[in-house]
């Protein structure tokens, strides 16, 4: 996700990122605009109209969602809508509650787009005297009309039962409630089936667009396919972090520091290890944590001192039997990069974002092999 998206900031407590398909859309819109002799600036304006419609769609969905949001969630925006990675399902509260909640969230986006299109239509027809039902409906030469039809198009597109579009999410709930003979967690099975249906639809749309020479249909199909891939990887990630125990992935061979160590002594020790984060231990008891960067910053600003004067005394720990998902939540809650692992109050290992980033791909592949 991070390799193919750009961070935009945090909204509604969720990190929002822009997928690079938006840059493909920008290049396509500007190219098509200049091809007919129109100033490229109007093409850029049309791009931002599309981006605003997607932002409105996702804002409505976020507002319709649960008030308590998982800090692990990341929203990736694509031209066809957003994909929430790390989304926690509500099916555990009951299939009927899940259907009601998912229906509210799924339909909030399309409804917001269609309502805004109606409002914009009333404005542009009365104030700007623009003919709404005139061709071309979406074009850089008719930006006011495009505001209306971009929102209409996005709203109607999400009513197709192709996951992860809005109606596709409702299809996932229905499949989870009617699992048939499929073996496994009904929600995960339903998600995989929905992703498969959505990708089949996207490939069909892409092929039809190619045969008809319609570059916009090809782009929409491609974006739905990419969104399905992101959802599939998110499901695999959620499956891994919920089932892997801390004792399975913790580092047991690690360096520790003492609060009585000087910063110069600490620097000497960290030179001989690849760790970026260190537990601080006194007489076998965990009393704090410190990072390589914090040691270096303290030496630069204050000169030589003691580790205990700059270490972090607020410690988040995990039991060795807890899930990896628990560690992720504690790490993101505090903005820390290491979790000490304890067993009966004794430090037995550490888990760092550094080693997790190195090992998540291995854990995912191991899970794929087990499922085959």
Would you kindly provide a written description of the structure presented here, covering whatever features stand out?
The protein has 372 residues and is α/β, with parallel strands linked by helices. The chain has two domains: 2-243, no CATH class; 247-371, CBS-domain (Roll), CATH 3.10.580.10. 57% of the residues lie in helices and 14% in strands. It has 13 helices and nine strands. The protein has a four-stranded mixed sheet with strand order 1-2-3-4, sandwiched between helices. Strand 7 (318-319), helix 12 (324-334) and strand 8 (338-343) form a beta-alpha-beta unit. Helix 1 (21-35) packs antiparallel against helix 2 (40-64), helix 2 (40-64) packs antiparallel against helix 3 (95-126) and helix 2 (40-64) runs parallel beside helix 4.
The mean pLDDT is: 82
- Helix share, percent: 55-70%
Question: Poorly predicted ranges (pLDDT <50, ≥5 residues)?
Answer: 67-72, 88-96
Computed CA radius of gyration, to the nearest angstrom: 25 Å
List the helices and strands and how they pair.
Layout: E1 5-11, E2 14-19, H1 21-35, H2 40-64, E3 74-78, E4 81-85, H3 95-126, H4 143-157, H5 166-177, H6 186-212, H7 215-243, H8 246-249, H9 263-270, E5 277-282, E6 285-291, H10 292-302, H11 307-310, E7 318-319, H12 324-334, E8 338-343, E9 346-352, H13 353-371
Helix pairs in contact: 1-2, 2-3, 2-4, 3-4, 3-5, 5-6, 6-7, 7-12, 7-13, 9-10
């Amino acid at each position: 996700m991070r390799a193919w998206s750009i961070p935009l900031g945090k909204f509604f407590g969720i990190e929002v990122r822009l997928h690079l398909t938006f840059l493909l859309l920008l290049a396509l819109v500007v190219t098509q605009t200049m091809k007919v002799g129109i100033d490229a600036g109007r093409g850029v304006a049309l791009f931002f109209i599309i981006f605003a419609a997607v932002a409105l769609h996702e804002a409505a969905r976020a507002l319709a969602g649960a008030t308590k949001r998982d800090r692990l969630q990341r929203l990736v925006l694509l031209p066809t809508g957003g994909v929430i990675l790390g989304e926690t399902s509500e099916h555990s509260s009951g299939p009927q509650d899940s259907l009601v909640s998912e229906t509210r969230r799924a339909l909030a986006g399309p409804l917001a787009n269609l309502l805004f299109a109606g409002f914009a239509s009333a404005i542009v027809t009365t104030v700007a005297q623009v003919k709404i039902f005139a061709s071309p409906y979406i074009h850089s030469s008719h930006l006011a009309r495009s505001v209306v039809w971009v929102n209409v198009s996005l709203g109607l597109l999400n009513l197709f039962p192709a996951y992860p579009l809005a109606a596709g999410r409702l299809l996932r709930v229905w499949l989870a409630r009617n699992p048939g003979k499929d073996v496994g967690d009904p929600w995960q099975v339903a998600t995989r089936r929905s992703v498969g249906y959505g990708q089949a639809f996207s490939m069909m749309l892409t092929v039809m667009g190619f045969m008809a020479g319609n570059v916009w249909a090809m782009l929409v199909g491609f974006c739905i396919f990419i969104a399905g891939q992101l959802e599939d990887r998110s499901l695999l990630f959620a499956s891994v972090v919920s089932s892997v125990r801390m004792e399975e992935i913790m580092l047991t061979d690690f360096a520790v520091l003492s609060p009585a160590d000087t910063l110069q002594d600490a620097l000497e020790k960290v030179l001989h290890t690849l760790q970026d984060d260190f537990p601080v231990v006194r007489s076998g008891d965990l009393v704090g944590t410190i990072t390589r960067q914090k040691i270096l910053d303290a030496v630069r600003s204050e000169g030589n001192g003691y580790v205990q004067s700059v270490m972090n005394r607020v410690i988040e720990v995990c039991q060795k039997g807890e899930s990896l998902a628990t560690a992720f939540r504690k790490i993101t809650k505090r903005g820390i990069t290491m979790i000490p692992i304890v067993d009966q109050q004794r430090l037995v290992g550490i888990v760092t974002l550094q080693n997790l980033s190195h090992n998540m791909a291995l854990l995912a592949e191991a899970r794929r092999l087990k499922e085959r």
